[in-house]
Structure formats: structure tokens, C-alpha cells
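hey m, so remember when u said the C-alpha cells were messed up on ur end? i reran from scratch. heres the input so u can diff it against urs
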Amino acid sequence: MNGSTSRPAKRVWCVVVTVLSLSPLAASAQQAQPGHPLDALTAAELRQVKAILQAEGKAGPKARFHNVDLDEPDKAAVMAWRPGASLPRRASAVVSEAGMVHEAAVDLSAGRITAWQEVSGEPALLLGELIGAEAMALADPRMVQALAKRGLAPAGVFCLPLTSGNFGAGEEQGRRLLKVPCYARPKGSNVWARPIEGLFATVDLKTGKAVDVTDTGMVPVADEAWGYEETEIAARSALRPETRPAGLSQPGGDNITSEDGRFVWDIWRFHLRADMRPGIVLSMVEARDGERWRSVAWQMHLSEIFVPYMDPDRSWYWRAFMDSGEYGFGNFLSPLRRNLDCPAYARFLAVTMPQDDGEPIRIADAICMFERSTGDPAWRHYETVARSPRDRTPAAGRPASELVVRSAAAMGNYDYLVDYVFRQDGSIHIAVGATGIDATKGAASQAMTDATAAADTRHGTLIAPGLVAPFHSHYFNFRLDLDVDGVANDFMRERLVQQALPEGSPRRSLFAVTTEMPATEQAARTRIEAGPAALYHFGNHNVESALGHHPGYMLMPEGSAIAPMLAADDPPVRRNAYLHYQLSVTPYARAERFAGGRFAMMSDGSDTLGAWTARDRPIGNRDIVAWYTVGFHHITRMEDWPVMPTHWSGFTLMPHNFFATSPAMTIRDVK
């Protein structure tokens, strides 16, 4: 994260709650029973989790809830479930109180705790912690004096608590640390335009005090407001002439239906919910092939966001944020706006998340779903053979439409949109759009002709007078539990290689395809580079088509793969050790949901995707999970300021010998 707010505590307990036999505390769950076993916890169930913990003496009045999520039933049980049947509802929770952190399991159907254990990891941040960290910083006399030296007082600034990672320093041990830089109060809508450079406090959330204040010297505070509201923009430069709006519409209504707790559109059906850490979770993704539904993926969701900055300055080197694990992408889902984020005709869905005190809060319009015409043909052909000059038969073809499932989270200065796009040709496109506001560093330079400019812009771009935007990278890791035509799958790499033809052939060369089927995790780790072309398949060798092919889905990077420019022993990289292999494959494990590990806050990298793949477990003909990282290196520019145009990074899952013919052939013709 590049600045944000989440929740208060000292140390933490992690509670996983599972309830089996009926009790008075099970009654509320009976009253608001979800329609599908993978549905998110309801408001009543969130309250029930809190009540059970209080009743069993595990949560007192000062307990704080860092995470409360559905503890999913086993895959096999959900696959066997049918409407009308019931499965036990379980919740997992991470709770802190009185300097302790525990993990618990509760079976909500029975109203009791089934597991309770203390954990040593640091859980995700609380909103109250972030609010409190500002007060800790501004209460320290050293901070007050440093501000006064700059002609500022605590009332004239706001401070931004940020995670500081883990650099193996002794002073980090046993603490829950945040770094707290500050900004001069904004003069308009843009709160990021006036950084107080070279000054920050380090606070320990466990003691509630600042442990250090760093002051590397005074830098002038930028004066320009740089607001982004229309009236503020118009005051700086003329707006464009008014134009006739272009838009999307669907006057007849959408084609989205529901069936047995899943959404159905065109040839697709899937379950949808939102969790605190990943945001949108898609489950039981299936494609209709004729009269039958066929499995494509068991589950897909964002696994981690990693944003390391490239400035070695004392105020910046530690800025290497794990937005999803440290703050929670789902925690910061923001309401979507009609005609901006989604068409006016979109379906908008609310989500319910727990607050610091465990009580539910409803985020309206957190997810939208909408169909859209792409304006392109799904397929076309104009026949030129055997036509007479008078034959005016038009081109054959079908228009393409797609279904978009979208959310957006405001992670401090950055906004991230996450799209899951279902297409009529049987493919799924997954993309992240990065927008919002560049993180800014105060600088003495007002222009590149200044004597200080070379030094000021060594690790960033001067984007406005007195403001440098440091270079950084955005990595987005997705967990893709692909179950193509069943649970037992294989991973295959197909490499395109040049092949020389024998003497006497009119052609001198062509390309051939060589297939590799890695048997273990280490062999499956893949660096995706701009060099020799390759295809990445996930298929089922236990199923055979009429032509003898094995059904599969192909991961298409589409230029979104990002090569890390960081050393493997760099402390932030050790915590995100998957970076040097954009694609990893692991055997399915319930506990392995997030590439950054269960507890990302101040983690040391011992529980991450990189550590899991080091076990080199077998992956052949079994339930496997793909982990794919997309993103971009952000070389900042003036055009990013004051608000960055949306930059999209994405990839596509494309059917490969899954269907007998093109699924798009059955789209109806234009009337």
C-alpha cells in the first residue's frame, strides 16, 4: 500500500471458530442461512462469531478483530452439495487483546469454538491502529520540534502511517512497527501534494508510543494545491469543450440469472463473494458445453499486491508495501460510481465486512456486474471465392459481448480496479487497473534546469515544482485453482523452437512445438521472458475428447509478465520470493491461499509461496494451483500528475482443445 488506513491493538490472537452441535448461540445462524455453502459470512454470522468468543471467555470488551472470514467446507463436500442440503457453517477469525494474538476456529452451526491457538505472526492492520499511529507520532516532542523547525504545528499537518517491512534489524524484534511521515494540510482535494520530506516517526503499536523520530534535514514544502475536482482543474487550465457523451446501454435489461447460489451468464456460471484480504473470490467456475456444465476452475482470487519503491533514501528505502496482506484489499473496497466505474445499467452488489470491534459494516455498491458489447466481432468471414460480381451477400459473423465482474479498492494514494471478464469464446480475462495519485517526495528543485535537479531525480521524475515521484513497481499475484474437467490436472509448458528442414526442402526452417510436463514444484517454476515463445497449459489427462485430445486451458501472459529488477536477497524480496518466477504451480493445500503468507505484517518470508515451492512436492495428475504475477515497472512521468491515467495489466485463460468446436459459433446472429 502506498498510504492507507485499517485498525487498534497490541499483540494479537488469531481465532478459528467451528460450531457443530446446536446451542442458543447457533440460533442466529439458523435465522439467516446463506443460500450456498461458499457464501460470505452474513452480518448475523459476524455478530455470532463475536458472541461465541465472548461467551467462551476468549474475547473481552477490548478485543479487536483483524480478520473474520468464512472457513470453507472441503472441496468434495461442496461439490456434492445440492440445494436444500446443509453443510456446517464455519468461520475463521484473527483477534487481538491484552497483548496476545490467537487464531480460532468456530462452527457457527453448533455455536462453539473448536480450535484456539496463540500465533507469533503479526496480523493485518486495524483501522484504529492507523488512526492511533498518527496521534502517537504527533504526541512525540521530537516530532513537534521538527515540525516547528519547519514553521508547522501538529494542527497544520496530517500523518500517514505506513508499514515498514522487515529488514532483520534487532530493534524490529518483538515490535509492531509503522513508519509515520506527514503532509502539510491540503489546500484542496489532493491530500498528497504537500509532503513534509525528510521527517518521519517510527511508532510501536504494542507500546502506543513513538520509538524514534528521523529528521534528515529540511526540504521546502510544495505550495501548489494540485486539486483534481473539476472546479479546481478549471481554475488552472481551460476544460475541453462540451461533447455529446458516448456510452453503454442495455435498454432490454441484462441476461444475468442465478441458479443454485451461482450467477449464470451465456455459457458461464460461477459463485461470487468478497473476503477481507483478497476482495472478490470467484468459485466453482464452469462453462456450459451443449447440455452439460464442465469445470474450469475451483477458485480464483487476488493473492497479493507488492509495491516496492526504488529510492534508497532513509525516508523511502523501507517503502515496499504488501497491500493485500498488510492492509487487506477487501477491507478497502470502495463504493463504485455509476457512469464512472460501471455503466448505469450495471448490477451493483453490497458486501459485509467486520469492523475492528467485530461488528459488521455494509459497503454499498462494492462490486458491479455488467454486460458490454466490445464493438468487435466474435468472429466474421466474408467469402470471396465463387462469388459473382452481383453477389452482395454480407459478411457472416457474430457480435461479441462479455460479462465484467469489477471491484475497486482505494489503497491510500493508489486505486486498483480488478476485473474478471467472461467471454463468449470460452476465455476468461483477468486484469488490474492502477490509477489514483503518485506517491510524492518533496524536493528543492522547481525545474530540471536547477542545480539540484540531477540529484533530486536520480530515483524518480520531477512531476511538478518541488515534487518528485519516485520510481516503483506494481506486482499483482493471482491464485488460480484450476480444475479443468475435474480435480486431477497437469501443468505443461510448450516451447516454440526453430527447426531446420533437410537439404532439398524448398523451405529452410519452420517452428516446432516441444512439450514439457514438470513433475514437481521446482521444475514447474517459470520465468516468462521476451525471448523464446512458450505456451502454458493446465489440462486433464484423465479425460479424452472424440478426437483423442485432452481438455485444457492455456494461460496467456499477453505482455503482462513483469521481470523483477531486484536481487533475491533484498529483504523485501525475501518476503515476496515468488517474484523471480512469474508462474508457479503447487499441489492444492487449504492453508496456502496467499503468496505473501498467512501473516504478512513484518513477515520474514518463511511462510510464502517461495518457501512452499522449495519443498518440491509432486504436482503431476493431481489437484494443483497456479500462481501468476502480473504488473508493471512504474517509470513516473508528468502525465501521471495530479491523477494517474488508468494503467491496465492482465492475462487470459483460454480454452485449448476443451471444446469440440468454437463456442462462439452458437451466438445468435444480429437482427
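this time it looks ok to me. The mean pLDDT is 93. if urs says something different then somethings off w ur setup not the seq
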